[in-house]
Prior knowledge:
The chain is an alpha+beta fold. It is 43% helix and 15% strand. The chain has four domains: 221 residues, Aminohydrolase, N-terminal nucleophile (Ntn) domain (Glutamine Phosphoribosylpyrophosphate, subunit 1, domain 1); 202 residues, HUPs (Rossmann fold, 3-Layer(aba) Sandwich); 113 residues, no CATH class; 63 residues, no CATH class.
Amino acid sequence: MCGIVGLFDTRGKREIDRQLLECMNQIQIHRGPDEGELYTEPGVGFGHRRLSIMDVSSGQQPLFNEDGSVVVVFNGEIYNFQELAKELVALGHAFRTHCDTEVIVHAWEEWGEHCVDRFRGMFAFGLWDRNRKVLFLARDRLGIKPLYYSLLEDGTFIFASELKALLAHPGFVRDMDPHAIEDYFAYGYIPEPKTIFRQAFKLSPAHTLKLHSGQGSPQLHQYWDVPFTPHHSISVQEAQEELIVRLRESVKIHLMTEVPLGAFLSGGVDSSAVVAMMANLMGEPVNTCSISFGDPAFNESQYAQKVADRYRTRHNVGQVDQDDFDLIDKLASLYDEPFADSSAMPTYRVCELARERVTVALSGDGGDENLAGYSRYRWHLNEERMRSVLPLGLRKPLFGLLGSLYPKADWAPKVLRAKSTFEALARDSIEGYFHSVSIMKDGMRQRLFSDSFNRALQGYQAVEVLRTHADQCPVQDALSRVQYLDMKTYLVGDILTKVDRASMAHALEVRVPLLDHKLVEWISGLPVSFKLRGHEGKYIFKKALEPHLPNDVLYRDKMGFSVPLAGWFRGPLRQRVSDALMGPILAETGIFNKVFLKELIDQHQSGRRDYSAALWSLLMFESFLRNVLHMEQPRLRRNDLKVA
């Protein structure tokens, strides 16, 4: 796994500042501590930090084709590179290494921008073709590996694996994007393709970007999408059998490495399934690791131990300190933009634990989105049935009134939280799902923001992110639609981002066999009743795994990988929250309504409300301002936002 960076002159062939390129490259040294190299020619400069995984002795980058006219920097793994290399050799290409990186330059020579259609793996790369005068960037289909870019005012195009490398360029303007701020306080992360900065973007999953020398603006192209093409006449039994075959095949190709390999084992269904397949494929015990918590409400370690015992893994358990508060500012620096998933804390620690033994770890991420594992899918389908009975014109006033009258009950089980259900039913399908996934609802965000900031939004609302993706969804059934939305937003913007930064902070490569695109394609075509049946999510997955895993691992309630924020904010972090939210840094931005901030703190700390998610998002935003921008007053364009 690696870090990549590049500079490209869109207006000509100005000399590349090697010292600046080296600085940008070194900022990502945590992604690749083994080696670092640069390449420059007039108008183009590439940098690479290497974590040696494959062809350790000769896989250095930047890497070239036979005559040096094509050069690439690459982050990721191409799992089918050996079969592609054989095909390319038969077509006349000559290989000098045994690494997957070299496949990219020859595939580009042979198939041009369609080379990405041939790659099976996780990847982000930048390629320069001197003969065609083309810069080409690509990101894998599910967005497992990150790629950021920016077109600067002087015509310089820059790209990197992490935002922090772009921030090192003196021409990069650090103005924040008000729409991204609205998105962040709705979702807890900033969905693709936005970043917190106006001038920077994420290359969206399954997209390529092409720039010709002398061309001002990049051309973006989507080369893949989740198909949801239905399988015809497949029985439950047939689906179970084929699912195991496909899962085993995906895990097998993800075992390819020349360095120590292991797996995360949380005790949940997905990671346990991956470990079960690994144990049957490997000729030695699997190295597994998990995190335990002192609070039994958050502790799954006993279930992880059951799987470890069954498959005789070399299991390593780390205890997470419930008061691991020192990570708050470290996380802000890792993610480079506001990021409010508190499970980033234990994720950071489990990656730290894994790196003590291995360089590559397999994880179970992606199973919930693929196979309908989230309970919110079940709630959404129930709400959709009610929406189908009454038209929106009747539902909106009726349930809107009930939602406004019904008391808020954060302490109650979800089935008793009728207020949230009434509010969702007063909305259409997309707005209703947005309401269920938002960490701050529409009314809260409107009260959170100052009057001047609400005006700066010019009517923009974060639900537009979901509406844009819903318009592109290839199917219309309610379950597949929200799975699709999560794959486009939550999976890539939260889950995969969280794991990439936490793992690469420790120079650990994490692979996700449940997100192999061929497996994703096949699962997407299964009948919805195979994924969610009654109250049981991942129905077909659990049935298929019954011979491989204990029932109490398969059929217990999902716990997640969370931390006890509500208690922290009423106890050991009580003063820190008050100091951060009521202090000068948030106040001087002009973004927030100070009266509402005080209300959030008081109502949470008194126990009347659970505002832990909202408070955490604000705490991480304040930490971002201090640790990433290093400014007491972050820059916002005054013509967009009048700061009092």
